[in-house]
Amino acid sequence: MPTALTKESEVDVLIIGAGPAGLMCGMALARAGVDVRIIDQRPARVSAGHADGIQPRIVEVFQSYGFADRLFQEAVQVHMAAFYNPGPNGGIERTGRAPDVTAPTARWAFEMALHQGGIEQIFLDSMASNGVEVERPIIPTAIELSGDEPTLQDPRSHPVKITLKHLEAPGGSLDTEIVHAKFLVGCDGAHSWVRRQFGITMEGEQTDYIWGVLDLIPDTDFPDIRNRCAVHSHNGSCMIIPREGDLVRLYIQLADKDVLDSKGRVDKSKMGAEKIMEVANKSLYPYKISTSHPIDWWTLYIIGQRVSNKYSVHERVLIAGDACHTHSPKAGQGMNASMNDTHNLAWKLAYVLRGWADISLLKTYELERRKYAQDLIDFDKKFAALFSGKPRTKDDGDGVSHEEFLEAFQTFGLFTSGIGVHYQPSVIVDDKYQSYASKLIIGQRVLPHMFIRAADSQPVQMHDLCPSDTRFKILVFTGNTTDMLQLKTVKGLADEMQKPEHFYRKFGHGNSSAVFEVLAISSADKMISNYTDVPPFFRSHWSKFLLDDTDMYNRTGGGGYDACGVDPHGAIVIVRPDGYVGTVAPLWDLGYLDNYFASFMTSSP
Amino acid sequence: MPTALTKESEVDVLIIGAGPAGLMCGMALARAGVDVRIIDQRPARVSAGHADGIQPRIVEVFQSYGFADRLFQEAVQVHMAAFYNPGPNGGIERTGRAPDVTAPTARWAFEMALHQGGIEQIFLDSMASNGVEVERPIIPTAIELSGDEPTLQDPRSHPVKITLKHLEAPGGSLDTEIVHAKFLVGCDGAHSWVRRQFGITMEGEQTDYIWGVLDLIPDTDFPDIRNRCAVHSHNGSCMIIPREGDLVRLYIQLADKDVLDSKGRVDKSKMGAEKIMEVANKSLYPYKISTSHPIDWWTLYIIGQRVSNKYSVHERVLIAGDACHTHSPKAGQGMNASMNDTHNLAWKLAYVLRGWADISLLKTYELERRKYAQDLIDFDKKFAALFSGKPRTKDDGDGVSHEEFLEAFQTFGLFTSGIGVHYQPSVIVDDKYQSYASKLIIGQRVLPHMFIRAADSQPVQMHDLCPSDTRFKILVFTGNTTDMLQLKTVKGLADEMQKPEHFYRKFGHGNSSAVFEVLAISSADKMISNYTDVPPFFRSHWSKFLLDDTDMYNRTGGGGYDACGVDPHGAIVIVRPDGYVGTVAPLWDLGYLDNYFASFMTSSP
């Protein structure tokens, strides 16, 4: 028990676990100016191996925080997938190639890979610039959530009491600390301590598939070693994923007897890197693979596919990442889903803590992210079964044919890329007026598209106009502002939007431009449009008024109204702080938008 | 006179002057591992104003050194030009808009702008990473070039003796230093001390045009304030160039009487920033311009257009930048030409110092760069006359019409962008076999084009394959390597190229891959090509073998053989270390390439 001398303190958000989910959360909250601490039991970040697939959507998310450039510098890009199947001569042969990801609207339509430590470092660097560092090694030893209903509903209360133990402290009372937190986010992995303290259960079961994984610099005559490969052979399945530099990751299917001990648990002493290489060579025959370098990293695992039955306790203790869902790593989904969990959560926490939104906004976190995790599990089961199943051969007509595998690979491509994620209707997803911007799907992330700035014709990417800065983006598609009739409508709209009874000022908490970013996009011709034509409200800075036109060399831009399905007479598109389309409205129904924001935001005092 | 105690030292290259020309030189030589020192008389780099236009070619050059990203972060982009002329009501009106630069093949087809200090800092940061810093404030006080012909021909000799004075030294013998240099590069500006020591004269004369320049953050209703504007008014001419952030630069034409003293020299006391703003408002009427911020920088100048009669003394003392040519700043040319001078010179100096090339290679510096400077002067005269001349109006039919001005603006666009620079035939520019790659113009910079890597289908830009790393790039367009007959030719070529009698080993100085970078580009289809098909010589690393094909989403790449005019049966294209096409050869005439390199390179011992 802590003594009276035990250090006690308060914090708005305490994050337990500094893996990708915890770090995304810590980075986003630190950047939002939230009082946040993040602890981890490991003495240092991981240095090699572990999860590494980076899907197109998470690259977009990284870009929204301003550090996709780090990925482009450090990560490898994976563009092509190749498929190998048993050939006539006892070895494998290539049956086809295809794009590695199926995501036609992705801003970057390829997969990337970087070891987990590299990804963590990007977050650590960003957090450090906001003065937040991971405190480690620290473990939580006790947790208590208490308070009556009004207390739990009051975002200013500190109902979570956590006892922490500093593992490298000098001992005595100094090694123990009590923290009173407004919110606790458990990002403490598949064996989550936080989850177990609250009796949250994982649903689903382990499968029988056992895999060896190793990262190496290969010497090989295999012609697709720099592509993602799915290999079905007479001698088992394997998967190849290129890694940064000259590294390659191999996933090798193993037999139970080679890996499990008498109690059915993985016994690493039974199977080493060398044995895995032997199996790999059997699978890849007639090609050969070896290495003249030390093995970078290796492990064994059994695929577990589970999702927790809930994601939060009274919206005060929340869990994220592997703590609430685990997946087969072969589809490269686990880490991406984990980071997207806390990307979804962070702005909501910030809004509640600032007093801008009701605490019930946090219910949308579980609603949106648990559904996705369940879909992911369903996909994973199908994909893992297909991938681990026996290939169809002349002798075995019941096996998996190449066509079945390829179809699954491509059908689920949009889903695995993260691009197709679609959040269901809620207080923050309302699709009443979808038809006014028919291709900016409400509940999906906003499309990437190039526009040009009216004042200087510089091309700008719609995604870069919607950074993760916790502001709602009010994209006002104005129609053609060189049409005097339309311009009159636009001027009237500007006057109306600035009135105190409408959302911009009503929910602006005295500083509307900190809550809302207003951007106007006209369909006018760049050669005759003047940025000075539109009302100052739609060009609070000269860079905020855009045109749907090509750049001066017709290399990019144009066609945005069509690509977004926007009505020629305009529409207002509300992009959530996490980049998802929240709702759409016609220019003439500001009242609808007032109601949209009133459903979860608090009005200015 | 220095005493016996005066510090004396040797250096391979001493650069005098740390403006853009000197810094480009110092950066490139430091990166090439050359023993280099750079001195400047100013105590610190400039902090605001001065030259700032960055043309498309110099952006490509910056990219070749790996720091174009700094420009994209810090500089403003200028995409559109607008033209204003006298309107019917006594004020100006817009007569048209056009792309700001005419350079269809530019990798980035727009102008950029950044204050000179920002550009200098990019070089300073790069040099610092190679352990070289500008020594300042130091001035040269004496220079002597001595030695007989054999001494001057021997690149190991130190025939240049320079006496330096350290302005902030404690005094006495410590403030003086004698440096013996193999080469001296004078980048000491329009009033070059180096140039005058050797009696090199400037040709050309000053014109009568006098301009006021100021950088400010404007408050204005002028609709093209973020575009480059050429304004002819009833009340004089002015030019507007957007700057980084919200800054704008104004060039305002002034009358002699307002600026000159009784001796015809510029008298800054006669015309201040406020008076220039008054003139600007007259020119821009009916639009208004003012500022609520301090003026960032301002100056007055008379346009001088001159070029020196020679660029070197025995190829041991060389001058570059404003020291050998000065231009009207309105076309944004001076700084760009200066940096391109030393970009042209640096690799040649490195080759001579390494013993890889004969000292006569340095003659091509004057040959190539003086011709360009002369052409630039000719252009500048025409442009300045057009720009400073009276506009054509109803009352003055002899003035410059908008059509005349626009035509000049566009005709010279390719030239002012730096993209159209074409070096004449010399030992390093040989166009005998131009027809084998008819659109990679020998003597011009290599075209930008996207290819994909055969091993992983990742798109790569040809320019990024040709960095400024002092190596000659041997681009082997192999034809279709999935055609067995063609593959046989390619295998034969690989065998032949590695023989000691051919250039790759003959001029490789024991480490051919440090002198030559071999890249192979096949016209094979990505879906069936194996990178392992081609001989190892053409894939020394898996990333070095490329395909002329689209990426997996058909977003980029493909059509490269056509775009480069390459014969379907292949060609070898030699790209000089500075990115210019040196020569082209058919696959069957290696002997021609041996002769090309033999004409300026020394063979391995």
Description:
With 605 residues, chain A is of the alpha+beta class. Among the domains of chain A are: 7-74 and 112-202 and 306-379, FAD/NAD(P)-binding domain (3-Layer(bba) Sandwich), CATH 3.50.50.60; 434-598, 3-Layer(aba) Sandwich (Glutaredoxin). In chain A, 28% of the residues lie in helices and 26% in strands. Chain A is built from 18 helices and 28 strands. In chain A, strands 1, 2, 8, 9, 10, 11, 19 and 20 form an 8-stranded mixed beta sheet that branches. The first copy, chain A, has an 8-stranded mixed beta sheet with strand order 6-5-14-15-16-12-18-21. In chain A, a hairpin with a 5-residue loop joins strand 15 and strand 16. The first copy, chain A, is globular, with a radius of gyration of 26 Å. The A-B interface holds A 69, 77-80, 97, 99-100, 104, 109-110, 221, 223-227, 242, 246, 452-453, 455-458, 526-527, 530-533, 542, 551-553, 555 and B 69, 77-80, 97-100, 104, 109-110, 221, 223-227, 242, 246, 452-453, 455-458, 526-527, 530-533, 542, 551-553, 555.
Compact summary:
Chains A, B: Residues 10-379 form the FAD-binding domain. Two copies of one chain form a homodimer. By secondary structure, the first copy, chain A, is of the alpha+beta class.
Outline the fold blueprint.
Two copies of one chain form a homodimer.
Chain A: E1 7-16, H1 20-31, E2 36-39, E3 53-54, H2 56-64, H3 68-74, E4 76-78, E5 80-86, E6 92-99, E7 111-113, H4 116-129, E8 134-135, E9 138-145, H5 149-153, E10 160-166, E11 176-186, H6 193-197, E12 202-216, E13 219-220, E14 228-233, E15 236-242, E16 248-254, H7 256-259, H8 273-284, E17 289-290, E18 297-308, E19 312-313, E20 317-319, E21 325-326, H9 334-353, H10 363-388, H11 402-411, H12 413-416, E22 450-453, E23 459-461, H13 462-465, E24 472-479, H14 484-497, H15 503-506, H16 512-515, E25 516-522, E26 545-547, H17 560-563, E27 571-575, E28 581-585, H18 590-598
Parallel strand pairs in A: 1-2, 1-11, 2-8, 5-14, 11-20, 24-25, 25-26
Antiparallel strand pairs in A: 3-7, 4-7, 5-6, 9-10, 10-11, 12-16, 12-18, 13-17, 14-15, 15-16, 18-21, 19-20, 22-23, 22-26, 24-27, 27-28
Helix pairs in contact in A: 1-4, 1-9, 9-10, 10-11
